[in-house]
Amino acid sequence: MVKLAIDIMGGDFAPDEIIKGVNIALDENKDLELVLFGDENIIKNNVKHLDRVKIVNAPDKIDMGEKDPIGEVRRNRETSLVKAFQAVKDKEVDGAVTAGPTQGTIAAAHLIIRRIKGMKRVALCPTLPNLGGKSRLLLDVGANVELRSEHLLQIAQFATIYLQETHNIERPLVGLVNIGAEPGKGREVDKETFNLLKENEKINFFGNVEPKELFTTPCDILITDGFTGNMVMKTCEGVAKTIGSFLKDEIKSSFSAKIGYIFMNKVFKKFKKVMNPDEVGGAVLFGVDGVVVKAHGASNAYAFSRAINQAKRTVEGQVVQKMKNIIEETNDGE
Q1: What would the pLDDT profile of 124-139 be if each residue is shown by its tens digit?
Q2: How does strand 282-286 pair with strand 291-295?
Q3: Which stretches of the chain drop beneath a pLDDT of 70?
Q4: Comparing C-alpha atoms, which of 294, 320, 288 is closest to residue 306?
Q5: Is 18 within 8 Å of 64 (Cβ atoms)?
Q6: From CA 171, how far away is CA 161, in angstroms rounded?
Q7: Could you give the dihedral angle defined by the CA atoms of residues 150, 234, 287 and 77, in that order, rounded to the nearest 10 degrees?
Q8: In the sheet where 2-7 sits, what is the strand order?
Q9: pTM of the entire structure?
Q10: Domains defined along the chain, listed by start
Q11: So what's the pLDDT on residue 273?
């Protein structure tokens, strides 16, 4: 039985959509127990499967637009997010899921759960849209503006374990996001990282990957610093939205375009589904001493249920413990 803490109050559509997502996840997973942190009265009146649910009254929340998330986490230990993460810290649950503010999530993870001993940085890791027949991890996308080569190596190791244990990919292929495909390209940190990844026996290293190849590369994992990763991710989101708007406008522009849409309707629906972040679930926060999944702030019920399932798989795969083992092996060898 997997036991997870859920921040009921975090997210643009909390608590209603979050509670609906909880119900979906409980319906789908008979071996799942949840500790729900939020407004007790709302939860009791709307949650099913109360035999597998514990409710902790925590109606306070960290606002999505909070300008000082670190200060808020330190000042107010009664918010639903902080209490959920404290349950992870105290080993009362196996992991936590929230759709709350990204920086608040990262701050709470750092200050409460804390990093795995020997893990030098954490990384926020979303899954890119499933284009070209496969999905890919991109990390870091915002937990750290800058990363050193040894940090990027650890993050690549963590991502490798994650895919091995949650997606049954025996030897995930790792690529380094860079300005050119040839060895020796990029900043000094990129060159150093290239060599570390190439030499590490636990990494199946592909080489450099240019941003234009993000959705065509055979790589399963794409590694970069948080600044670059965030820029790449938001650019991809912007391009997808722009393409969608362009097609919508063009289809309305003429009768022949409308006729063409009728024949292409299935293709457009498939494109929309592939680009829909609801199918992914959330971004996993790698490096903290417990499983944390950050669902999209605008998650609907279905998307949040996917994030819960994602956290469950990560717990079942013992991803955190296996990363601890690698760190211990590395330290023993030094």
Answers
A1: 998 887 777 788 999 9
A2: antiparallel
A3: 257, 261, 263, 265, 267-281, 331-334
A4: 294
A5: no
A6: 9
A7: 140
A8: 53-57, 32-38, 2-7, 95-98, 291-295, 282-286, 123-125
A9: 0.88
A10: 1-119+287-317 (3.40.718.10), 120-280 (3.40.718.10)
A11: 60
